[in-house]
Write a structure and sequence with these properties.
By secondary structure, this protein is an alpha/beta fold. 43% of the residues lie in helices and 13% in strands. Strands 1, 2, 3, 4, 5, 6, 7, 8 and 9 form a nine-stranded parallel β-sheet that branches. It has a four-stranded parallel β-sheet with strand order 14-15-16-17. Strands 18-10-19 form a three-stranded parallel β-sheet, with helices on one face.
């Protein structure tokens, strides 16, 4: 354990001078830097940023921030530890009730890895609990049944399988390992990792503290693992966790301990400075999140302690984008692993940022975003010393020969066609290689019955579980029909005016809504720009509420009435406060279907034109398919393919809603029960769209309660909105009379043994006040 020096200067200026000269700071000095305030704190951040910039220059990539494009593989959520802030871990009983496996099967692992490879990922992050077989007999029995002596032996087998099948490079986070175990795993992966978290013995030894009762969180044990990784010549990722009850002294000692371990072996490739975020259903659910000022200070001091050449990583999904400038100004130079495919299963309430958006934000901070491999360039380029010969070919296949960074990410080619499979085989292939299926294959899956349907829904639910995670989303919202707006005065019952609308918005805000949804073409008696009046009134009264408003048909009405083209109409709505738009207004993207079912709907080409214009204006939208009428299975598949193509073009859809058309209920398969119609539709939607549109919403207003739960077990991950009627003019909502209070939504989620997550309209975190 690091000790202080009695002669160490405690002034910030003196410590900064020593750091600038490349001298090792003593613990007392590090603590003094962590405590700096005012101008001293500014000086610490400035020094850290300068050190980071010097390090990037020395690395040959000035002005470049890095990240790793990954898939997250939670091989098992069983663990022998009991950390008070962890939501990742399950017990065998919880897994059984939720119909989740004790360990992911090889097929499930490959399904996730292949999807990642198809989207240009290069890292497969294996994360799991520590030695579950030491605590749980069920884990021991599973390993025995499948022929593995230990969980780590299974990790090795799956890592090799992923590497050899997909080319992805495994990064292993299996917890505490011995020196010999690391040597055995070294041939399966170019890098490994384990967070130190903290050197605080108080948090480990004292009853009630976060690490009490968790044998693998003994600081001495974790420091031994980090040292052993150096002796084994393993490129290693580690770091500290800020805000779990540790003191500033603890943070200082933790950083110095990591520096000393790296000085001995040179193996720590990055230090993660991670901020604690409280999670529901944990012992620390009521604890405050890490203080932003202290978090930023820790990033800066980590940079000064570890030096210019160390990579300092900050997880982008654990901070709000508005805070990114502070993190970068404090000396961070790496965003870590970010996935376009899978959720952060350790922090499921915090979605990854979109990679294009992360690049834009990084560029706005004056840096270029560049992809790296799971092993950092310095270790890739010195492969003879740092990489086992077994992993060198796969690593070099993905590395730029000049820089050691990743070769440019590209979407993989469509997999080759394989011999025609059984329905069960098709479902498995759809889970791992959806691009290998043609339209006839998808039609077969849509028509699945009996055992084939069960296989289909299990496969879709596995994809849902391992990509977007277990949480069921819902937004707290209120619906308003713009068709009932009357500028000259409402009737106090079924119509409303601007004054009423302001009261509706204020009421929604007071009820905790984070969204107001407005749909419907204004009446012919209203001004052509009535939609703009409505938007301005809502945003003026409740500027903190997100406005999700106006279908393509409504926007075309605005454009025609005001002499604007469609792009200008969306721009005007955006400027008036609209944040996202509904993608409704068509049933199926087929003119044949439109003419037969809803000839009054907007023409298909006009709908596509409007959606593209909305996305160009920066307004994301929902997407839908109304099924169960005259459409064929092939037309449903064509609809989904069109949406997927459009999403690749614009990246503008937030979710897809497969919605049965009211008053019809025509079975695609004669005699098949309605519940099975819905399960098949949701499952195929999940499998076809998971690589493009991440969220599949279950339209609870159109289904019976049992059908809602069944759809959520078939790949659905969202319930849409609560649709509060409110206390002010409740009858002017589009779905008046249909409400799902959060308590009811929680009962649905609890019945499936899944957490409920209140979300914002765009699937980010809602304002804290609205979550309460």
């Amino acid at each position: 354990m690091p000790t202080s020096s009695p002669t160490a200067p405690l002034s910030v200026a003196a410590a900064l001078t020593r750091a600038a000269r490349g001298e090792r700071l003593h613990v007392d000095e590090v603590e003094a830097l962590l405590r700096a305030t005012g101008e001293d704190a500014d000086a610490v951040r400035d020094a850290a940023a300068s050190a980071r910039d010097e390090g990037l220059r020395l690395a040959g990539r000035p002005g470049v921030l890095t990240y790793s494009r990954k898939v997250f593989i939670p091989l098992t959520t069983l663990c022998r530890d009991r950390c008070h802030y962890c939501i990742f871990v399950d017990t065998p009983g919880q897994l059984k009730r939720a119909h989740k496996p004790l360990y992911m099967t090889a097929e499930q692992v490959l399904a996730v890895a292949r999807r990642g490879a198809a989207l240009g990922c290069k890292e497969a992050l294996f994360t799991l609990g520590d030695r579950p077989e030491d605590r749980w007999p069920q884990a021991r029995a599973w390993l025995d049944e499948h022929g593995y002596a230990t969980t780590l032996e299974y990790v090795a087998a799956m890592a090799r399988l992923v590497r050899d099948d997909t080319g992805l490079l495994p990064h292993l986070n299996p917890g505490v390992m011995t020196y010999d175990e690391m040597l055995a795993l070294r041939g399966t992966a170019p890098s490994m990792g384990m967070m130190l978290e903290t050197t605080s013995r108080r948090l480990y030894e004292e009853p009630g503290q976060v690490h009490h009762g968790s044998p693998d969180k003994d600081p001495a044990v974790r420091l031994r693992v980090i040292d052993d990784a150096g002796r084994a010549r393993v490129p290693f990722t580690t770091g500290i966790l800020v805000g779990i009850g540790e003191t500033l002294r603890d943070r200082a000692e933790s950083l110095v301990a990591l520096r000393d371990a790296h000085a001995a072996h040179g193996h720590i490739q990055e230090v993660i400075v991670q901020n604690f975020r409280a999670k529901p259903r944990t012992a620390m659910r009521g604890a405050p999140d890490a203080d932003l000022r202290e978090y930023v200070a820790t990033i800066a001091v980590a940079r000064l302690v570890m030096g210019p050449r160390m990579r300092i990583q900050v997880p982008p999904n654990l901070s709000d984008p508005a805070e990114f400038a502070l993190l970068v100004a404090a000396g961070a130079d790496d965003w870590g692993g970010v996935s376009p495919v899978t959720a952060d299963h350790v922090n499921p309430e915090r979605p990854w940022p979109d990679l294009d958006e992360l690049a834009r934000l990084t560029d706005g901070l004056g840096f270029a975003l560049t992809e790296r491999l799971t092993a950092h360039p310095e270790y890739v380029q010195d492969a003879e010393r740092w990489l086992d010969p077994e992993v060198v070919p796969a690593t070099r296949a993905l590395a730029d020969a000049q820089t050691g960074l990743a070769v440019r990410s590209t979407r993989a080619a469509t997999p080759p066609r394989r011999p025609r499979a059984t329905a069960a085989g098709l479902a498995d292939r759809a889970a791992s290689e959806p691009g290998a299926l043609d339209d006839d294959d998808w039609v077969r899956l849509l028509r699945a019955e009996g055992d084939a349907l069960e296989t289909l829904t299990r496969a879709a639910d596995d994809v849902r579980r391992y990509t977007v995670g277990e949480a069921i989303g819902i937004v707290v919202n209120r619906n308003v029909s713009s068709a009932q707006y009357r500028a000259t005065g409402g009737d106090g019952r079924d119509t409303y005016d601007l004054a009423d609308l302001r009261r509706i918005a204020a009421d929604a805000r007071e009820l905790g809504a984070t969204e107001i949804c407005v749909q419907g073409t204004p009446a012919a008696s209203e001004a052509p720009d009535a939609a703009l009046e409505i938007a301005r009134a809502i945003r003026g009264e409740a500027p903190g509420i997100h406005l999700h408003a106006f279908r393509p048909a409504d926007v075309r009405h605005l454009a025609r009435g005001t002499g604007r083209d469609i792009d200008a109409a969306y721009a005007a709505l955006r400027d008036a406060g609209v944040g996202t738009v509904p993608g409704t207004g068509v049933k199926v993207l087929s003119e044949r279907v439109r003419r037969l079912v809803a000839p009054e709907d907007i023409e298909i080409e006009r709908w596509l034109e409007a959606i593209r214009a909305a996305h160009r204006a920066g307004l994301r939208s929902t997407s839908v398919l109304f099924y169960g009428h005259v459409e064929t299975a092939g037309e449903r598949i064509a609809h989904l393919r069109t949406l997927a193509t459009l999403q690749r073009e614009t990246r503008g859809f937030t979710e897809f809603v497969p919605m049965p058309l009211p008053g019809h209920g025509t079975a695609l398969v004669p005699g098949r029960a309605p519940i099975d119609e819905h399960r098949a539709m949701v499952a195929v939607s999940r499998l076809m769209l998971s690589d493009t549109i991440r969220h599949i919403q279950v339209p609870w207003t159109r289904l019976h309660p049992a059908e809602v739960s069944a759809a959520l077990r078939a790949g659905g991950d969202d319930l849409g909105g609560t649709l509060l009627d409110g206390r002010v003019l409740p009858r002017v909502g589009v779905e008046h009379g249909h409400e799902m209070p959060l308590a009811q939504a929680r009962r649905i989620a609890d019945g499936l043994f899944r957490p409920l997550r209140t979300r914002a309209t765009d699937y980010t975190e809602p304002a804290r006040a609205a979550r309460s």
